[in-house]
Design a protein that fits this description.
Elements: H1 3-38, H2 42-46, H3 48-82, H4 84-123, H5 127-162
Length: 168
């Protein structure tokens, strides 16, 4: 098993995946501009700021993860050739930490925020709060979709790392 190849493929898949954050960020930003230019009703005008904020957040997440993983691809080969056992050990520790974060943030906190946003739609009947809640739900669904697939890739990568004989 060539762990360097597996690690590089995983990181490249992550780079590809983070592009979806950027794509959805652009869609949210375009929607914000659309609401700003074409919005005539109170509810349409109420979407301007929430979609702008959601787009900015998704863009920040996407660009941050994109450049982090892009640079990680470049450092894998050097780190592996310098000290393969240390590389595998550090990747196992990083994968464990990331999987714990996914379980806490993506699969517990985000669903709770989704529930709160859905309840706000039901109980608060103002255009601004409805726009905030609906935009929040849309943004969190994007995060769940992208991070759900990233979690699956990370689990597979982690299992492959555990099969590597570190003492080589």
């Amino acid at each position: 098993m060539d762990i360097l190849k597996i690690a590089t493929e995983w990181a490249k898949a992550e780079v590809f995946s983070t592009r979806f954050f950027i794509l959805f960020a652009i869609l949210f930003l375009v929607a914000s501009i659309g609401f700003w230019q074409l919005g005539k009703t109170d509810i349409a005008k109420a979407y301007i700021i929430p979609t702008l904020v959601a787009g900015a957040l998704l863009l920040t997440i996407g660009l941050g993860l994109f450049y982090t993983n892009k640079s990680r691809v470049k450092t894998f080969e050097t780190a592996y050739k310098t000290d393969a056992p240390a590389f595998v050990t550090s990747e196992i520790a990083r994968a464990e930490s990331t999987l714990k974060e996914y379980n806490t943030v993506v699969f517990k906190a985000i669903p709770m925020i989704l529930i709160v946003a859905a309840l706000l739609i039901i109980f608060i009947n103002t255009p601004t709060w409805r726009a905030i809640s609906i935009t929040t739900i849309a943004m969190l669904i994007v995060i769940l979709l992208v991070d759900g697939t990233a979690h699956g890739r990370m689990e597979t990568y982690y299992k492959q790392l555990q099969l590597v004989d570190v003492k080589k």
